[in-house]
Design brief:
Oligomer: single chain
Distance between the termini: 63 Å
Radius of gyration: 19 Å
Strand order of the largest sheet: 1-2
Helix content: 40-55%
Strand content: 5-15%
Order of helices and strands: EEH
Number of strands: 2
Structural class: mainly alpha
């Protein structure tokens, strides 16, 4: 069975613009990287805020 190529960018279902295609393997990897980066940023930001609060800054 031949694999069908899917585009990386597809039109949005609602509104204007484009979005990453979740059926594309590269699109899945990029979504995971973006999600992990956002979570890591939030963890670091809250860690710094709580550390500064506990130190009395």
């Amino acid at each position: 069975m031949k694999k069908q190529k899917t585009p990386l960018w597809i039109p949005k279902h609602f509104g204007f613009g484009i979005q990453l295609n979740p059926d594309n393997p590269l699109g899945r990897k990029l979504r995971k990287i973006i999600l992990i980066s956002v979570i890591a940023f939030l963890v670091v930001a809250f860690s710094i805020a709580f550390y500064q609060q506990s130190q009395g800054y």
